[in-house]
Specification:
The protein is of the alpha+beta class. It has one domain (about 45-215). The chain is built from seven helices and six strands; from the N terminus they run αβαααβββββααα. Strands 2-5-1-6 form a four-stranded mixed β-sheet, with helices on both faces. Strands 3-4 form a two-stranded antiparallel sheet. The N and C termini lie far apart (about 75 Å).
């Protein structure tokens, strides 16, 4: 009986083993490509964190009065510190100038508290704090540890409020993406500029930062 085969003499069809190896190789290449992309994005996120000073205000409690007071204290601190950013080009300059004026900031906050008939103590310090991924208008900041100006009113047991103090995106004169463009360079600006294509990477970075924080 005559047997007919396709292809050149000696050639054989790909076996399932060969196909599996090909699939594995392609999957590995895809994983490595994604890992490289996330690693690059993570490095850009690190650059963003080192360029930002955040404001974190903690209310005495969750009562309606204390929450309203929190916002008044926030406004007083921002107003007292607004001129400190003139000429500052880095987060280090902004932080140094704020540290030198911390007594002025505390006095402004204490005045607001007294005007509202309260006697809560006020504490303003600089701290390294963890923040989850947050969006402020057109700007998104990745999760991670940031330098923050921390304002604690009384017990500091109420809901908190936060924003970006430097670049001065908390300030009324600088609440648009153009302000962010002026302070973040290249890839860092591409990270903070809110874009749906980065959302999966933000989630991966946040998961990693949460995991790393849990190990401390």
């Amino acid at each position: 009986m005559l047997h007919i085969t396709n292809g050149a003499p000696g050639a054989s069809r790909p076996t399932s083993v060969h196909r599996n190896k090909l699939v594995i190789a392609l999957a590995l290449a895809l994983v490595l490509s994604c890992a490289a992309s996330v690693a690059g994005f993570s490095a850009d996120c690190t650059a963003v964190r080192s360029s930002v000073l955040r404001l974190h205000v903690l209310a005495n409690s969750d009562s309606e009065e204390d929450q309203a007071l929190k916002l008044q204290v926030r406004d007083a601190v921002l107003a007292a510190g607004s001129d400190l950013f003139d000429g500052s080009t880095t987060v280090e300059n902004a932080q140094a100038r704020l540290e030198a004026q911390s007594a002025q900031l505390e006095a402004a906050a204490a005045a607001v508290i007294a005007e509202n008939g309260c006697d809560y103590p006020i504490s303003i310090t600089f701290a390294k704090e963890y923040f989850s991924t947050r969006s402020y208008g057109d700007v998104t900041l990745p999760a991670g540890n940031y330098d923050a100006l921390k304002v604690v009113i009384g017990e500091g047991a109420g809901q908190n409020w936060w924003c970006i103090m430097f670049p001065p995106l908390c300030l009324p004169a600088a609440q648009d993406s153009a302000a962010a463009d002026a302070y973040f360079d290249g890839e860092a600006y591409q990270v903070v500029e809110h874009s749906p294509k980065y959302e999966p990477r933000f989630k991966i970075v946040e998961w990693f930062e949460n995991w790393r924080a849990s190990k401390r």
